[in-house]
């Protein structure tokens, strides 16, 4: 079976990228770290196919949740605020990489 991003529920959110510019993030619910980004929703949607493919390569197809026979849900989350962006960057600076 070929899996598609539309087989799963999504979280969509406007976030700030590393340069402080706004972009769209789409995350597949129930698949940790399966995310895509784009300047527009269309761009992020197009890249989600590749994100799902890479997630399956890394984690294995047997780790996918069962595909639901119901309508896809798309959750629109609150836009990232500057304070959250700053806090995340401070946490990253404190990491010992």
TrEMBL record:
Gene3D superfamilies attached to this UniProt entry: 3.30.160.250
Official protein name in the record: HicB-like antitoxin of toxin-antitoxin system domain-containing protein
InterPro entries, sorted: TTHA1013/TTHA0281-like (IPR035069)
SUPFAM superfamilies, per the entry: TTHA1013/TTHA0281-like (SSF143100)
Natural source organism: Halalkalibacter hemicellulosilyticusJCM 9152
Domain of life: Bacteria
